[in-house]
Every structure is written in structure tokens, then in C-alpha cells.
Amino acid sequence: MNTEIVESFAQMVRAKGLDKDVLGGIIEEIFGLMVKKKYGPDANYDVVVNMDKGDIEIFLERTIVEEVEDPGLEISIDEVNERGNEEELEIGEDFVEKLELITFGRRLINLARQSLNQKIREIEKDLIYNEYIEMEGEIVVGDIYQVRRNDLLVNHNKNELLLPRIEQIPRERYRKGDTVRAIVKEVKKTPNGPVIIVSRADNVFLRRLFEIEIPEIYDGIIEIKAIAREPGERAKVAVESTDTRIDAVGACVGMKGVRIHAIVRELNNENIDVVNYSDDPLIFIQRSLSPAKLKQIELDEENRKCTIYADNDQVSLIVGKNGVNIRLAMRLTGYDIEVIREEKPFEEYEDDLELMELKEELTPEIVELLILNRFDTAVEVLTAGIEKLKKIDGLDEEKAESIIEILTNQFEEEE
Asked: Do residues 174 and 144 make contact, with C-beta atoms less than 8 angstroms apart?
């Protein structure tokens, strides 16, 4: 029966991939509990498991007494003598007997089997937790086996990984059976086992992709100093070379952009700006906002604030679509950036516009009124400004502002 029980337990453990010694320890613990159930919690026992032979031996040690008060700890001298031991034992000595498993009965054996299953499940959970806690921040590749409303379930080495919506790249399409790459972001212990959360939206995922595609980063020749990212939209990566002979940005982009394009494709065509890092915040801020041209930068290093002055036509480049460019620059540099728009002096425009050409934009009535007041070109009107325009009979402040805005837009469109 011993062999049958050990082999039965061994089959369960082999299916789970547990170590043989781990199984032996579990069996010792479980059969120890069986002894305590039958002989009491203070029973003095020893469980010996030989996994190679498929054998379990249980030894119970009790004190020989004249009259038994606690059967779990004591045995009478009469019972000892009845067993016909080869050596003569006396009262006060210890009597060690080998317990046969069959004496525990089927009920306790089944209970042991259930306890073993539970123990194996607990150990399996710990093994999975320990395996993935060591992989935090590393890329894993798995297959999507379930697409749910707010998350995806990914199969990786027969383990379930969770890719929540917040960790997905926006507008990326996922289908059951697709292979997906992500980093292990967090491993949580729960009563139902470990929950392994993976991410494609985390900055670390972008960092790992750079290490995979760019050998100089993996080898430590180029260092990623900072990353700012809005997944699926745009990212900025600041890099620095430890070897003056190697251009950090050029190495990351690769010949004809082949290296960076591989990363962009993996990130669902997310635009990536690679910039050279600098310890000088002025230079670093300028580079982070390239190719926009900045007229002046004022720094408040103590409060980590920065004021930028730029021409009107450069502001849209600085801010970017929906403000994404300036937000990423702030995250990359660690500075709160404010942009001050400086209007370009109108006399600097190379090509002036005749008001007669702007009848459609301003209306013929307004053009005629301006010409009657000796304004013939757009620059003359813009130079005069709102204060002078609203002194003209028939023009109030609102109309004056509208005229200035229309003419300003005309010059910007010309550029």
C-alpha cells in the first residue's frame, strides 16, 4: 500500500513539475498530520519517505508506563510484553513502533490525498509568483486566448497573463490567437493565486524594445537617460553616448531609419523622437522641442520652471497636435514649460498685400472704408493696430479686432 500511495502522489507532482525532494517534504508533513489526528497533537513521531523506493515509514515513540493515562504518549508495560519484543523493556523507557499505513484507514488516506492536492496548488502558485516576480520589467511573448471588454488574457508557458485596457496601446486591434509582446509590469499575490499584469503602454516596454533593436544600448555604449511617452501617439527618448566616436541619435535611428522603424511598427506606428541628452537644461529643453525655433528661454531651476519666447509661426510646432509635443518635452526634461507667443513685426513681412485683393475676406464695404481713411495695404492696417482702427467712423473695437485677425491669418497662410 505504501508504494501505491507514494506512486499516486508522485504522478500528481510530476504533472505539476515539482521537485522530488519537495514532494517528500510535503508527504512527511501530511502524514505527520495524520499521526496527530489519530494520536493527538503532542504525539512524538517520525515520518521517513524514500521516494526512490516508493516507501513511507512512520515511527511512533511512546513512554512505557504501568497504567496508561494518555494513549498518544504512553503505552502500558503489559501491551509491550504482549507484542513479544526481542529486547526486554522496562517502565520509564521509550517504546518505538512502526505504524502501518493501513491502520489509518481509507478515510485518513483520502484526506491526505486532498491535503496533498491543496499543498501542490499552493506550491504551484508560489512557483509561478516567484518565476514572474524575477521577470518584472522583462519582455514576454504570448498568445491571446481571450479578448474581453476591458482586458486581454494571454497564454505564456501555460500561465495566464493579464493585459488590462489601460496597459494596451490605444486603437491597437487584438484578436484571439494573435501573438503579443509585452513587459511584465506587476505580479500580485491574491487568494486565488498570482495575478501577472503585462503592459505595452509602459515606458519600460519602449526601453526594452530599444535594447533589443539597438545593440549599442544593450552593450551599454549608449544610455537611455529619459523617456516620455503617450502610447500610440508619440514618444521622446533622450540618449547619450559614452563613446565620443558614436553618434547616439544616429545609432538609434539606424541606416535609413531601419532600427527605429522596427520599434515604430511594434508600437502601432507610434512616432518616436530620439534626442541627444544634455546636462545643461537650456540645451536639453531646446533639443526636446526641436525642430521648433526658440527666440529666448528663461529658466527657474529652483522651481523647475521654464518660459519660452517664440515667434507666432513656431508656437504650433512647440505645442504640437493637441499639445502632445510640449507635454512630452515637460516630462522628458522635468521642467514646467510656458510658451509666450511673440508677434512678428508686420514690417518684416516680405510681401505686402493690397487691400483691394482682400475684398472677399474683409468684405468690399470694409475695404472701401479703410482705403477712404488712407490705408492701402495689409501691413499699413496691421501697423496701425486696433486703437487707431476703432477711431474710424463705422468701426468699433470688435470690428477692428476682426480685421486685424483676418489680416494676420493672411500673412501666416502666405508663409
From this structure: yes
pLDDT tens digits, one per residue of 1-14: 455 566 666 665 56
User: With 90 as the cut, is the pLDDT of residue 399 above it?
Assistant: no
What are phi and psi for residue 300, nearest 5 degrees?
Answer: -120, 90
Q: Which domains does the chain have, with CATH numbers?
A: 2-131 (3.30.1480), 135-201 (2.40.50.140), 214-251+270-342 (3.30.300.20), 347-414 (1.10.150)
For 115, phi and psi rounded to 5 degrees?
-65, -40
Report yes or no: 211 and 218 within 8 Å, Cβ to Cβ: yes
User: Across residues 207-234, what is the average pLDDT?
Assistant: 95
* Grid cell in block for residue 124: 504551484
Q: How far apart are CA 20 and CA 118, in angstroms?
A: 17
- Cα–Cα dist 270/33, whole Å: 59
Mean pLDDT of 376-403: 85
Question: Coil, strand or helix: which one is 69?
Answer: coil
Judge if pTM exceeds 0.90.
no
CB 162 within 8 Å of CB 195: yes
pLDDT at position 146: 94
DSSP string covering 367-412, please?
HHHHHHTT--BHHHHHHHHHHHHTTSTT--HHHHHHHHHHHHHHHH
Average pLDDT, the chain: 86
d(CA 4, CA 13): 14
Tell me the CA distances in angstroms from 322 to 267, 268, 316, 338, one per residue in order: 20, 19, 10, 15
Q: Give 59 or 353, the one with higher predicted confidence.
A: 59
Angle between helices 203-213 and 258-266 (to 10 degrees): 140
> CB–CB of 39/29 below 8 Å?
no
